[in-house]
Inverse folding.
């Protein structure tokens, strides 16, 4: 519309309003600034926080894959995606998530590989041997398939503790 001559944009946070089809300000602002070079005057770093505040106050959940502010927009899980994002984030992301106050994350679930496990462990200040990582990858995938959910940091800590307890008891692991 702006390209066609409109000089006014009405937008709402998260696209919420009294009717359907409201234009999400977080998407409009990023498009204007990133694609068209138009300064909006908005502090883009506050968009994610504002969106989360509106989500909390309205009790209307933000879909995880919602552009710009969704929880999974800047997350990767599959080994090839994690490796690409770690080596060159621009291969997987249109812009740095910090630009809008969001963050890059690695999810653990079905399809997770060693790079994802190592990165999440590093984020927790933990390290693991190659054998432990291989066993963690197997268990992460097993749990994710059984529960149909990603694993959180506490579950990863517990798995690592289990792997180490079993290893210190003289057990060996079969790497599959």
């Amino acid at each position: 519309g702006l390209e066609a001559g409109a000089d006014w944009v009405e937008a709402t946070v998260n696209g919420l309003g009294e009717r359907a089809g409201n234009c999400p300000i977080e998407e409009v602002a990023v498009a204007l600034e990133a694609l068209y070079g138009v300064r909006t005057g908005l502090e883009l770093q506050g968009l994610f926080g504002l969106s989360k505040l509106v989500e909390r106050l309205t009790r209307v959940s933000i879909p995880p894959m919602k552009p710009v502010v969704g929880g999974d927009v800047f997350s990767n899980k599959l080994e090839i995606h994690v490796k690409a994002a770690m080596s060159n984030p621009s291969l997987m992301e249109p812009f740095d998530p910090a630009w809008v106050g969001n963050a890059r994350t690695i999810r653990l679930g079905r399809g997770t590989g060693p790079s994802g496990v190592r990165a999440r462990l590093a984020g927790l200040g933990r390290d693991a041997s190659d054998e432990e990582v291989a066993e963690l990858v197997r268990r992460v995938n097993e749990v994710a398939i059984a529960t149909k959910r990603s694993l959180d940091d506490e579950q990863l800590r517990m798995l690592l503790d289990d792997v180490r307890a079993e290893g210190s008891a003289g057990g060996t692991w079969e790497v599959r």
User: Anything to note?
Assistant: The chain has six helices and two strands. The radius of gyration is 20 Å.
